[in-house]
């Protein structure tokens, strides 16, 4: 690990001033960044600890919730308002990592955690994300966990966050502060596809600080988060589905679907949503919508199974949400 300095600013303005310095990085719970420093993948010269800032969950005027970027993952998952109004978010967080890691990890850090592609962590491997222009060993390598949607010839890594997938389905906004002021970015536009520049993972500008995530008012109907993985705990998603569904008289009134484990960013399933809205809430319709969403998916040597798996998990999740509405 390289030498670095550590600062713990007492307010946001001081954090922004320090964060704008060359070589500075914000520090949340450190559960990803410190690992990357130990592995010499990241080498910040200064850590700006922001865990003491933006630590509240508050009601918004519009009936939603504003979750500070410094709130721990455990606190979000356990918050009664989150559990009652946004159960898929609570379920998504609890499906990730371990209790100890969730106790340390923050909302801001969770959004910015780096990919779990093994070639990114191996500095003997070619990786355009870690070392732009060197190639991608995952494309012809061991790629069971890798992307089937939106990948490029430069990178097939996936985004690992469970929480971010639920936030994508919820139409959450990410608030960021920089020296030019604050801006709200829809979560679904916050992370980007790899294209030719997989080292660029978000639309954040240098020195910008995530301060909050805002959830719009909760949806009517039912929602849930399903995560399929190789082990029952402590494993990243092969496929995950965050879904919210409102059915009236057998017709889909509102539906939101986002997928994890399939792309460089949380994947909002717009094609499936469009196919379902206003149509029958039947298993056949759910299956057809899932097929429409994954029509553009491309498998690699080890991960082509995810295409069928994704269709099955979307279909099954919607079938179960429909059944839950019927017994309400
Ligand atoms: C063994 C293990 C298993 C895991 N399993 C899962 C899993 O199944 N699912 C899952 O979703 N996650 C999993 N994780 C990842 C875990 O969720 C992340 O490590 C955690 O959410 C990162 O949060 P943090 O606060 O510790 O971030 P840090 O490690 O402190 O920071 C991560 C990044 O965010 C930046 N950052 C932090 N806060 C801010 C801010 N406010 N503004 C701007 N930049 C900021 C940092 O500079 C850094 O680049 C696992 C981690 C481990 C170690």
Strand content: 15-25%
CATH architecture of the domain at 222-326: 2-Layer Sandwich
What's the pLDDT, averaged over the residues? 97
CATH superfamily of the domain at 222-326, by name, is: CO dehydrogenase flavoprotein, C-terminal domain
Name the helix and strand elements from N-terminus to C-terminus, one letter apiece. Answer: EHEHEEEHHHHHHHEEHEEEEEHHH
Bound molecules: flavin-adenine dinucleotide
For the largest beta sheet, what order do the strands appear in spatially?
4-5-8-6-7
Distance between the termini: 55 Å
Q: Can you count the beta strands?
A: 12
Protein name: Xanthine dehydrogenase family protein subunit M
InterPro entries: CO_DH_flav_C, CO_DH_flav_C_dom_sf, Diverse_Substr_Oxidored, FAD-bd_PCMH, FAD-bd_PCMH-like_sf, FAD-bd_PCMH_sub1, FAD-bd_PCMH_sub2, Mopterin_DH_FAD-bd
Organism: Paraburkholderia polaris
Domain FAD-binding PCMH-type: 1-220
Descriptive overview:
By secondary structure, this protein is α+β, with helices and mostly antiparallel strands. Among the domains are: 5-51, Uridine Diphospho-n-acetylenolpyruvylglucosamine Reductase, domain 2 (2-Layer Sandwich), CATH 3.30.43.10; 222-326, CO dehydrogenase flavoprotein, C-terminal domain (Enolase-like, domain 1, 2-Layer Sandwich), CATH 3.30.390. It contains 13 helices and twelve strands. The protein has helices at 12-19, 33-38, 73-78, 80-85, 87-94, 99-104, 107-111, 118-121, 163-169, 187-190, 270-276, 283-293, 305-326; strands at 5-7, 24-27, 46-49, 57-59, 65-68, 173-178, 181-186, 209-215, 222-228, 239-248, 251-260, 267-268. The strands form three sheets. A five-stranded antiparallel beta sheet has the order 4-5-8-6-7. Strands 9-10-11-12 form a four-stranded antiparallel beta sheet, with helices on both faces. Helix 5 (87-94) runs antiparallel to helix 9 and helix 12 (283-293) packs antiparallel against helix 13 (305-326). It is globular. The mean pLDDT is 97. Residues 25-33, 50, 69, 96-97, 101, 104-106, 108-110, 112-113, 160-163, 209-210, 234, 236 line the site of flavin-adenine dinucleotide. GO terms for molecular function: FAD binding; oxidoreductase activity. This is Xanthine dehydrogenase family protein subunit M. Keywords: FAD, Flavoprotein. InterPro entries: CO_DH_flav_C (IPR005107), CO_DH_flav_C_dom_sf (IPR036683), Diverse_Substr_Oxidored (IPR051312), FAD-bd_PCMH (IPR016166), FAD-bd_PCMH-like_sf (IPR036318), FAD-bd_PCMH_sub1 (IPR016167), FAD-bd_PCMH_sub2 (IPR016169), Mopterin_DH_FAD-bd (IPR002346).
């Amino acid at each position: 690990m390289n030498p670095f300095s550590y600062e713990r600013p007492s307010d946001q303005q001081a954090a922004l001033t320090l964060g704008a310095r060359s070589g500075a990085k914000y520090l949340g719970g450190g559960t990803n960044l410190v690992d990357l420093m130990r592995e010499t993948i990241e080498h910040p010269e200064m850590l700006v600890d922001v865990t003491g800032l933006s630590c509240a969950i508050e009601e918004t005027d519009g009936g939603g919730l504003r979750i500070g970027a410094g709130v721990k993952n455990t606190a979000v998952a356990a918050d009664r308002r989150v559990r009652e109004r946004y159960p898929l978010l609570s379920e998504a967080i609890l499906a990730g990592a371990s209790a100890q890691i969730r106790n340390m990890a923050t909302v801001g850090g969770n959004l910015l955690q780096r990919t779990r592609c093994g070639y990114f962590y191996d500095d003997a491997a070619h990786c355009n994300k870690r070392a732009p222009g060197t190639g991608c060993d995952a494309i012809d390598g061991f790629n069971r966990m890798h992307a089937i949607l939106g990948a490029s010839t430069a990178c097939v890594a996936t985004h690992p966050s469970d929480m971010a997938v639920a936030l994508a389905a919820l139409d959450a906004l990410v608030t960021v502060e920089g020296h030019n002021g604050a801006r709200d970015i829809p979560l679904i536009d916050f992370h980007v596809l790899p294209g030719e520049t997989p080292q660029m993972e978000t639309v954040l500008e240098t020195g910008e600080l995530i301060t909050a995530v805002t959830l719009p008012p909760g949806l009517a109907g039912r929602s849930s988060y399903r995560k399929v993985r190789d082990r029952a705990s402590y494993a990243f998603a092969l496929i995950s589905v965050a879904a919210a569904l409102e059915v009236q008289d057998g017709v889909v009134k509102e539906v939101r679907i986002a997928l994890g484990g399939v792309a460089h960013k949380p994947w909002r399933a717009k094609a499936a949503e469009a196919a379902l809205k206003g149509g029958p809430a039947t298993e056949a319709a759910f299956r057809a919508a899932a097929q429409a969403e994954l029509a553009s998916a491309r498998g690699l040597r080890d991960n082509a199974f995810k295409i069928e798996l994704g269709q099955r998990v979307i279909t099954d999740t919607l079938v179960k949400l429909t059944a839950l509405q019927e017994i309400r």
